[in-house]
Amino acid sequence: MTGFHLRAISGLGVKGPACFQLETGGARLLLDLGEGPDAGMRPDITGIGSVDAILISHGHPDHIGALDLAPELGNPPVYATAPVRALTDDLRLAHAQDLPIRGTVQVAGLTVETGPCGHAPGAVWMRIGGAGGLLYTGDMSAESTLYPCELPAPAAALVFDASYGAADQPLADQMAELLALAATRPLLLPAPAGGRGLEMAIAFAAAGLPVALCPAHRHVATVLLDHPGALVPGGAGALAGMLAGTAALAGGSPAQGVMIAAKPNGDAGLAAELIARFAKSGEAEIVFTGHLATGKPAAELVASSKARFLRWNVHPRLTGIAALAASVQPRLAMAAFVEAPRAADLAAALPDLPLVQAPEMRW
């Protein structure tokens, strides 16, 4: 198959919502339709018109948060994996058509191959149109200790998660830093329930530290135990053991050990309640581990030294991007979800990667 056209509707040159349009063979697909992570950011779908399907890489808001715009796109069918469907409260996703975690499906006459890409429950990369087509990673992390990740096959074009630019600190080093801090005082870790929060809980529990989990995290863990194919080998056992050995976290829980609560930027959920308490009392140190979204409490708390930032990798570091490029061997590549200066750092670090700067690719 020839004659592919990819447009970055949103997600190029910025840590912004995912939305990419692919046209080939008379079919028009939308890859993700997100909102955020910074407050108020949404794709501009003006002029797109009708599409044949929306393919969802995973269930985080910056990839699904604008699905309410689907009527403006002709109300196309939505495709998502079983864990994404099971964990959503959006009826468009709950009733979506199946996208396998590993496998092949026909969408609008196109062959869509999928494989696990770490990062979050049920997250997948997609190869559309075979070796001559597009490989879209969504968000990806080969370092995940709970969600499996497999490198994809070759494709002519690649749109990949470049959220960290050229940063290359291993997750193991970040884990060690957090474990050392947790040994000195109680920690509150705001985190996404459908993401790194459960990975962190398993790591801290395995280190012998007391762990308390919010209800949102406990719910996700319970659902995932019904989807063992969405976990690494042995992941279901580790998750069940952690769940049985951790306390239930509530607003009045004592400040002790490691407390993990949604949501990640502290703007809602139990995390918001506990942040208000601990920022005032100092009973526990507040540590954010992911993107500090503009307009959310996390960024303000870190800027005012009322909280700390220590990253926990959930996106590919430089070594992972190099491995991905070697596996896919693209003729064209687009670095997504990263600001222009950090994209330039990545281009300098990987000069052989055929990066394009324009928001469109044709091949």
TrEMBL record:
Which residue ranges traverse the bilayer?
A: none
Q: Where is the Metallo-beta-lactamase domain?
A: 16-196
What SMART domains does its record include?
Lactamase_B
Pfam entry (one): Lactamase_B
* UniProt keyword Acyltransferase present: no
Give GO terms: molecular function aspect only: hydrolase activity; RNA endonuclease activity
Keywords on record: Hydrolase
Q: Which SUPFAM superfamilies match?
A: Metallo-hydrolase/oxidoreductase
- Name the chain's protein: MBL fold metallo-hydrolase
